[in-house]
């Protein structure tokens, strides 16, 4: 279809080098097929969410989980986000996917909270989505629709979302923070981590990228970088989460370095909403259902 083909051609100019690299590994035709099946998948409800707990030492009165998208395709099987999110970002379809993820997460979060559980969820927000002018309103609307207090929701942004137009990003972050939504920087350390900017962003949390955690303990450079990131988070009074913690040795290193919140296979893989309900059932005594007050 010609319109879609034009879209790719136009995009090629805009996305530049990144497009070129993708194009070398994936033909235009296969990209168009993927684009088409992705759009059909949203309508056919083939996307679903899994949730991965984040564990804080000495804390079990509430649970935090990150929502992660999955695609159960009838012909391709289970497709990981790494194979469709990048294309969705290039075509802009990520905006629709992102809306669905936000709504679905809020819907599930409301179910858990209305059953009396203390649970918060974080949602990944792509740069393209964050830069949409209506983004803040959409988030506010999702909270209202599902009667959720803002502090139950955290948004994970990457440094690339914030660096393009810093003043606009700060405005938008402020608006979200003013609503009471928590904000995290995802994959921290892989982008243009600018310390001066970091101080200005009204964020709550830094998530150290898995590529650093993978190499500790053992690789002195990454050990130093991880410690520096933890110290910096402490200096800025931010929460710090280590992503991709797989071993006791990693956890011990991180704890010694001052990081007490972990997300990784050592604790839990991402899992279904039902499996999360089971964890809640086994770890919390549900309180009387909370009314939405927008206070902590
Ligand atoms: P991310 O946000 O940094 O998510 C963490 C990724 O690390 C997840 O991969 C998770 O399954 C994986 N992970 C967690 N613990 C471990 C571990 O101990 N070892 C290893 N090897 N991996 C671990 P996943 O679910 O495949 O997602 C990959 C990326 O795709 C995410 O990285 C995020 O950037 C993107 N993504 C996923 N869901 C969404 C979404 O709903 N919206 C957007 N915009 N992006 C999403
Ligand atoms: Mg994330
Ligand atoms: Mg990450
Ligand atoms: Mg990521």
TrEMBL record:
Domain EAL: residue ranges: 31-284
Residues spanning the membrane: none
Recorded superkingdom: Bacteria
Identification of the protein by name: EAL domain-containing protein
Organism, scientific name: Leeia speluncae
């Amino acid at each position: 279809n010609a319109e879609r083909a034009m879209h790719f051609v136009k995009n090629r100019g805009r996305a530049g080098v990144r497009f070129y690299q993708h194009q070398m590994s994936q033909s235009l035709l296969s990209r168009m097929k993927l684009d088409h099946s992705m759009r059909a998948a949203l309508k056919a409800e083939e996307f679903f969410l899994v949730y991965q707990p984040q564990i804080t030492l000495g804390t079990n009165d509430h649970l935090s989980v990150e929502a992660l998208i999955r695609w159960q395709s009838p012909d391709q099987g289970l497709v990981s986000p790494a194979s469709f999110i990048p294309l969705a970002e290039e075509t802009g379809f990520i905006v629709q996917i992102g809306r669905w993820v936000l709504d679905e997460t809020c819907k599930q979060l409301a179910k858990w909270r209305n059953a009396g559980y203390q649970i918060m969820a974080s949602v990944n927000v792509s740069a393209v989505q964050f830069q949409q002018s209506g983004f803040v309103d959409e988030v506010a609307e999702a909270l209202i629709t599902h009667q959720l207090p803002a502090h139950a929701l955290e948004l994970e942004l990457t440094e690339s979302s914030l660096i393009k137009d810093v003043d606009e990003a700060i405005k938008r972050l402020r608006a979200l923070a003013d609503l009471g939504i928590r904000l995290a920087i995802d994959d921290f350390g892989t982008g243009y981590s600018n310390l001066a900017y970091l101080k200005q962003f009204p964020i709550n949390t830094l998530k150290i990228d898995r590529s650093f955690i993978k190499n500790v303990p053992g690789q002195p450079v990454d050990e130093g970088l991880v410690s520096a990131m933890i110290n910096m988070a402490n200096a800025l009074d931010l929460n710090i989460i280590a992503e991709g913690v797989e071993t006791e040795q990693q956890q011990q290193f991180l704890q010694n370095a001052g990081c007490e919140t972990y997300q990784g296979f050592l604790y839990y893989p991402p899992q279904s909403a039902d499996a999360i309900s089971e964890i809640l059932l086994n770890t919390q005594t549900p309180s009387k259902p909370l009314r939405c007050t927008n206070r902590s």
